[in-house]
Amino acid sequence: MNLASRDQEVSSWISECSQNWEPYGCFEDVHLMLIPIIFLLLLAPFRIYILVFKRNPLAPDVARSQLYFVKLVALLLLLFTMVANLILTQTHHFVVQTITIITLLVAIILHHIEYTRNSNGSGVLLFYWLFTTLVNGYRLWAGGPINAHHIGLFTITYILSCLMFVLENCKCPIKEQAIHLGNRINENENICPDAKSNIFEKLIFSWMNCRMQQLSVSNSFWWSVADDQACSVFQDRWRMESKTQSPSLFRALLLNYPTMQQLFTGWLMKLFYHILQFTQPLLLSAMMNWIISHTALTQQIPEPLYKGASIAFYIFFVSVIQSLLLQQFLHLSTTSCSRLRSVLINAICRKSLSAIDVPSINKVQQCMKDDIQTLVDLFKHLHLGWSIPLRLTIGLVLLYHMVGSIGWVGVGVMFVNIPVKLLLERLYQASLCVYNINQNKQLRIIRDILHGFRIVKSYAWEMPFMRKMIGMKNNELNLLRHLGIITATQYSIFSNHFTPLIASFATFFTFSHVYHQQTLSNQFMLVIIAIYDLLNEPVSDIVLYLQLLVRSRKALKKLQLFLSSLSVSDPVTPHSFNHYQHDGNYNQQHQHGNSESNLPIIEVQQAAFRLPSQPQLILQSLDLSIKKGELIGVVGSRRTDIIKTLLGQLVKTEGELFIRGSVAYVSQDPWIFNSNLQDNIVFGRPWDPLFYRNVLDLCDISEEQSIQKQKSRISLARAIYSRADVYLLDDPFNVEHDITTQLARRLFHRVIQGHLRTKTRIFATHTFSYLHQLERIIMLWDGKLVMDGTFGDLMSKQRGQLYHIMAINQDQNNIPYLDENSNSLPSLPPFKSNNLSFGRSNNNIDDDNGNNCNTIESNFGLDDTDGENEQSNNSSDQEEQMKQCWSTYAKSCSIIAITTAILLQVLSQVAKIGSYVWLNYGQNATITKSCSFLTIFAIIGICSILLHTIQCIFLWLVCVTCSAKYLHSRILSNIMRAPSNYFNNNIKLQNIIHRLGIDMKRVTQDFPKLFHRYLLVVTSLTGAIAIIAFSTPFFILFLIPLGFCFIHLRRHYLRASLRYHHLVSASESHIDSIMVELVNGSTTIRTYKQDHRFIADSEAKVANYQRICFLAASCDRWVAIRAEFLGALALLGAALFAVLDVVYGAAPVIDAGLSGLSLYYAMRIPSSLSYIIRLSQNIELKMASIKRIQKSLPHEQNEHKDTISISPSWPEYGRVVFQNYTSYTTDSSLFNDATFTINPGERISVVGGDIRPDLLRETSNNTISGNIDIDGIDIHTLRLSDLRSRITVILAEPILFEHATLRENLDPLEQYDDLVIWEILKLVQLDVQGDIDAPFYEHKFTKEQCWLLTFARALLRAPQVLIIEESNEIGVEVDEIVRQILQDQLSGSTRIIITSKLDTVMESDRVLVFDQGGHINAFDTPHNILKYKGSLLNTLGSSSWDGFNTINK
């Protein structure tokens, strides 16, 4: 077959249904009437079955409402009218009319059943009456063989059909209609209107109108989500899967019926959507055929107007139905995936609480955020497995009918992009991994610097550290440029935007060379391009699907491994301290209040235990018997493993273990959860106010003090309140937290030896101070029990072994040696990267938040904690903020670069439109040499691609790099000008890290992608409007009101959507906080039998998260359906104006190609409008990052109006004079008219006050009067850098930078050579092994050595004025070294020591004593001050200072 015959066949195939179309005939009289009949007769049986066998009947008073009888009367009238019409009208369609009457009887039966068993409108009946109304309306409009004598009966039938459609849309006026017999719904439950809406309200999401207009959020704002038992179904399914030989998490999820039911329903919607997608090229061809029939170049008779108008309405209806189907699919898919997410989160929560081997919080959070999201994406795109082959098949069939096998050429070009895109994506992921590693390293260094920010400011080291951070940023910019090159390649040459153009050119070029004698019509070429546009989506989805399958396989494997880990038996059974055995059986006896005194309460018989993740035994041959009321001490290298064994955290491989009684647990690291003090102590037990007060008094707990400062005592109080039989105490008096040595001794005597004396107490400790007070001591070594007896027996018989084991235990726990003047082993942590100030706890609990802990902001690093609300109820203020953010981003990218990028994109779009216009004019010119015609088409297309490529290069290499550099410099500038105490607040520090990390990543990676897509779709939409307006100018008049409606819709949606997404983020933080609580406190929760309560709490938070996500997703669907409807109206306007212009236009020659091109672009408008709104929302969400970045920090007042310059040798003597100096804040007074002089070289002790902030001018927020002179110069006239570089400070906390080198910690300005640094280290008696240019963490200094390093740092500067904050945690030897340095190396310097030690005070030349009001209480020699009994120093010394009376005598 030659191409000419094929082309004729294709044209006849496309228009065969529209040839010889008459206004009325057999088609309308028979075929149209069968549409509602077939619809109802097919669906009514299924609907009746569901109503009769799956629904409960409604109450009789509900089912027999007034609306029911009105509908019944209308139906009977309609039945009478149709029977009369059948009898009186003698037509040859007797059978069809009889079937119509039978169908009406079925509708009456269905109407009765619906009203007795369904509280909502019937979707089947609604569509039936809609189809009936449309068909009868068309028959009435078209006329035809309706008997004129009986037109009245047909009109009455039509009116009654319209009435039934209206009545079916009416809601039942009785509110209680949702009450079923024997099944009443909770009146307080806020049911989602979606469950009470009819099919049309569900399709257009009109039930969301109330939430889109409501601005305030209250308890009734959230709709309850129907309980579909998805979590319980999955738990049962996974339990069954776990028992199989090859369990599959994917199979368990796939067989989760409540979730998959919605997915399958959505897939059905998607199937019809894809089928309707490929009707667009056919409708486009039909419209162009109709237009061509009216051109002067054709000899055929012009087709009638109504045919063109009908095609226009067909295009409109197809677009609207596509939109309805797509949004319903997205709604069902999002809802089902939200349920799937909830199912997996709940499963992880349960496993985290029940796992024997407690997982790390990082592992759990990675599973929740990364792996679950990957699985959700997989199920959201699971339909691509059948959707891609379906679309490819339909598209290839259409191409084959159009161009035969030549269509494979264009498809082959599209498939060639797949491996290239996969390669580019792989390169991008590899580069992104390197970039993330570099950024994480940079953030660790910045966190290190911010933790030590007090030293940076005190030593005036801002510039060297700022240069270091800028250098790291420059390295990051190189990686960012590499990422930009790959991204620009992905978004330019191999983007989906130009693939159909290239494939079309390949098809046309091959066509012109194979069939030399054939010409290319514009109708033919536009249809081919439209088909390639549709084929481009499944081809692109192949890349997405393959990548998703690879990532999902890894995520499934990780989640399955996590959920399959060992668990305690039945974690929610009350008090199940079961221990895992190899045979799966547990020997456990729980007898609360055991009456048999000869039966031990804890008994271990030749048992061996191991960790769940390791096969090696850590405890073996353990034989132990503990009676009720004993106080047992556990020491040795495996002391904590005994506690873990009794708590069920170890796997038992042999032997027997019995615990007869309830257990309470006090951990070494105290755990508290996010609630008040009472909840943390009562912990689900019955409320006893009197006993509660006694517990508070026993543990010295104050209700006014924050939980953070009492968490160890709260953990002990929780155990006391539980009234357990066995108390497991794992080093509860840890001085790292909130218990001093004196308080620990008091609690031990009052609680353990006093209140709990009748209970069994197992006390694991590493200190000597409590051993002699214990009734019995158990010692473990190498996993074996080596000693068991009293303290006296063990010390007398095995004294050497006891000391040997304890000394080794000290080394294993990084505990310094035992001071000979102390009776306890101080527990000091090693130097860690995330704990630069050694006295600070590394907990996420806010000290300033009273009884609240683990705040949302601290968990997620949100910047809302600065007191500024992200949302503004005032829309004008919000728009103004958005303008400022856009202005900031434009400035950061360079106005010239961003303008060039926009201009290049506009030119690229113009060139692309020009290539399609050339197709039209090339046909009109009847070019016979197709090669030259296609060459020009290719040149224009290549110009478009090149312009787009240059635009991507500008955007990703110039704009992104400039914005990253500008915004990073802005943040650094804000940091370095901030006060030194600003980052003492952990939340503020997290906010800065969040800006430098997540926010900068969003600005440099996420935001450019959104901006590029937004620019692409806006220029494409603008080009479409321009083409339509050029073809039919009157379209502009129709477009203006649509434009105003779209702007109003976008503004209304963004206001609501942004609020919902902020609520989603807050809900996610709640889930994250409960997950942290479950992981950190899993052992405590299981011990106190609170599994049910915490699981219920986590499931409630997950359900709340699901409700918010449902509301946010419904909001997206609400706006999408309306935006696409506006686009469909624009499409209808373009098609109708084209039809009217053809019939009534004044142009002498009708340009069918231009009209077809305008209609081709108009078909893109609905999706473009929806995409623009979605991009606008994402851009505004990302704009929050720019808003946080541009937020300024408080600045120090660096310059004085009378700033002077000083000599390099200042200060030469070190004379410090305070003259009438007053400094106070709104809360307290620091100095009150202070006047005193410190002579050069004096050693001054300061008691009761702190003069360091005033000498360094760190009191920028204070009200100051008077002067402070150093060597005759007022320090307030100096630059801060000049002042702080000449005064040296040694802080009580040894702040050092772990990720810097040792040299950078001592001399970041590089003013001294290696010989000087080594000499200084020798002076402070530090034996440093290795290179001083090696990273600091490699040296593994102890805390006391770190404190000596701060003295070495001070000695390098040879200061004339030295301020020392003396630490109370250093040992005797280090204290002696410090005294020697002060006497020998710094004797000529003015030394101001802020101290509370009496021996330091007595060694000073003079003592400066302040009272609480900031007044000077005394300033004299120590001995003179101590002579006055009424002085503050005398009072403090006589009350609390050790050795005061001896020294005074």
3D structure, described in words:
This protein has 1449 residues and is of the alpha/beta class. Helix 14 (305-354) packs antiparallel against helix 15 (361-380). The model is unreliable at 1-7, 13-27, 174-188, 570-596, 803-873, 924-928 and 1435-1449 (pLDDT under 50). A six-stranded mixed β-sheet has the order 5-6-7-3-8-9, sandwiched between helices. It is built from 48 helices and 19 strands. It is globular, with a radius of gyration of 41 Å. The longest helix has 54 residues, at 1091-1144. Strand 1 and strand 2 (617-626) form a beta hairpin.
The total beta strand count reads: 19
Distance between the termini: 125 Å
Q: Work out the helicity level.
A: 55-70%
Number of helices: 48
- What's the mean pLDDT score? 78
Largest sheet: 6 strands, mixed
